[in-house]
TrEMBL record:
<protein>
    <recommendedName>
        <fullName>Spermidine/putrescine import ATP-binding protein PotA</fullName>
        <ecNumber>7.6.2.11</ecNumber>
    </recommendedName>
</protein>
<dbReference type="InterPro" id="IPR050093">
    <property type="entry name" value="ABC_SmlMolc_Importer"/>
</dbReference>
<dbReference type="InterPro" id="IPR027417">
    <property type="entry name" value="P-loop_NTPase"/>
</dbReference>
<keyword id="KW-1003">Cell membrane</keyword>
<comment type="subunit">
    <text>The complex is composed of two ATP-binding proteins (PotA), two transmembrane proteins (PotB and PotC) and a solute-binding protein (PotD).</text>
</comment>
<dbReference type="GO" id="GO:0005524">
    <property type="term" value="F:ATP binding"/>
</dbReference>
<dbReference type="InterPro" id="IPR008995">
    <property type="entry name" value="Mo/tungstate-bd_C_term_dom"/>
</dbReference>
<keyword id="KW-0547">Nucleotide-binding</keyword>
<keyword id="KW-1278">Translocase</keyword>
<keyword id="KW-0472">Membrane</keyword>
<feature type="domain" description="ABC transporter">
    <location>
        <begin position="2"/>
        <end position="227"/>
    </location>
</feature>
<dbReference type="InterPro" id="IPR017871">
    <property type="entry name" value="ABC_transporter-like_CS"/>
</dbReference>
<comment type="function">
    <text>Part of the ABC transporter complex PotABCD involved in spermidine/putrescine import. Responsible for energy coupling to the transport system.</text>
</comment>
<dbReference type="InterPro" id="IPR005893">
    <property type="entry name" value="PotA-like"/>
</dbReference>
<keyword id="KW-0067">ATP-binding</keyword>
<dbReference type="Pfam" id="PF08402">
    <property type="entry name" value="TOBE_2"/>
</dbReference>
<dbReference type="InterPro" id="IPR003593">
    <property type="entry name" value="AAA+_ATPase"/>
</dbReference>
Length: 341
């Protein structure tokens, strides 16, 4: 909790999480959801108003940052412009009183890990953004922390560099076996890099799971809508069937809660099929968008509900029904999820 004037703001609401040793764990959520606050608590930059922070079973709740085996890579590189790459990486070790010979060895190893040995004598302004980010990583890794915290470290990079650094971070984590706790609001980043993801909203932890689990089985509407693209369709659920437009019913999991709910269906699980008596759900084709490998096709149900179908262009020859065409709509088996709102 934080005090803002006369008000008390709850930044994190009863968050309890167990992060496994040696995993790449991502805290994912929109700006202001509390993910950076949680990271700062682990780092020791903030003190929780209640609860404990345990590392390998040891209570570090009140331990100062410099006495925690934890290092942080921030969104801003925070490199010293007057120091060389080598000096930047070794600065923290020097402040810890590490012997000069040991600093030399640790800096050399850290620069080797991020593949910057040949740039050790350059200044930060002589490096690209991606190279500067690697220096910040090397500096954080040099003391051999047990946990590395990464606070949206790739957000300032362009798309190509960001992709390269995603691969680099995953490689480093596998090679070192260090626990990485990564904060991002980028869903694709979380899905492609993480062993597990914790989805946050408004100070609460909504769901924890492997990327495939989070994507295919979201626990509520927020998670379904925030993770990737999804179609959200209002429905009335009764007796393992969900009724949508014009009393059209489709089968759902028998364990689904009954009543008024929202269905979630990923665009890649929406099929455009010929209109027939075996296909109760129909739609009018709207606009389509070509993305190279696939096309996104707008479908308008009878009540005006819009859903998107994503079709692989290689499989369909790139052919899309023209706008206004009436088509049948089917969903892949098991693809419809009934959400708790």
């Amino acid at each position: 909790m934080f005090r803002t004037g006369q008000q008390t703001v709850v930044a994190l609401n009863d968050v309890s999480i167990a992060i496994r040793k040696g995993e790449f764990f991502t805290l994912l959520g929109p700006s202001g959801c509390g993910k950076t606050t949680l990271l700062r608590l682990i780092a020791g930059f903030e003190t929780p108003s209640s609860g404990q922070i345990l590392l390998n079973g040891n209570d570090i709740t009140d331990a100062p940052p410099n006495l925690r085996p934890v290092n942080t890579v921030f969104q801003s590189y925070a490199l010293f412009p007057h120091l060389t790459v080598r000096q930047n990486v070794g600065f923290g070790l020097q402040m810890q009183g590490v012997a000069a010979s040991e600093i030399t060895d640790k800096v050399k190893r850290a620069l080797s890990l991020v593949r910057l040995e040949d740039l050790a004598d350059r200044k930060p302004q002589q490096l690209s953004g991606g190279q500067q980010q690697r220096v910040a990583l090397a500096r954080a890794l040099a003391p051999s922390p047990e946990v590395l915290l990464l606070d949206e470290p790739l957000s300032a990079l362009d798309l190509k560099l960001r992709k390269e650094m995603q691969s680099e971070l995953k490689r480093l984590q596998h090679e070192l076996g260090i626990t990485f706790i990564f904060v991002t609001h980028d869903q694709e980043e979380a899905l492609t890099m993480s062993d597990r993801i914790g989805v946050m909203s408004k100070g609460s932890l909504l769901q924890i799971g492997a990327p495939r689990e989070i994507y295919n089985h979201p626990v509520n509407r927020f998670v379904a809508d925030f993770i990737g693209e999804t179609n959200l369709i209002p429905a009335e659920v009764r007796n393992a069937k969900a009724t949508i437009v014009r009393n059209v019913s489709i089968p759902v999991d028998p364990a689904s809660p009954e009543g008024a709910h929202t269905l979630a269906v990923r665009p890649e699980h929406v099929r455009i099929v010929p209109v027939s008596g075996d296909v109760p759900l129909t739609a009018k084709v709207g606009e389509s968008v070509y993305f190279g490998t696939d096309s996104h096709i707008q479908l308008l149900l009878a009540d005006g509900t819009e859903i998107i179908a994503r079709h692989q262009n290689e499989a369909t020859g790139g052919e899309v029904p023209p706008p206004g065409t009436e088509v049948g709509v089917a969903f892949a088996p098991g693809a419809v999820q009934v959400l708790e709102d």
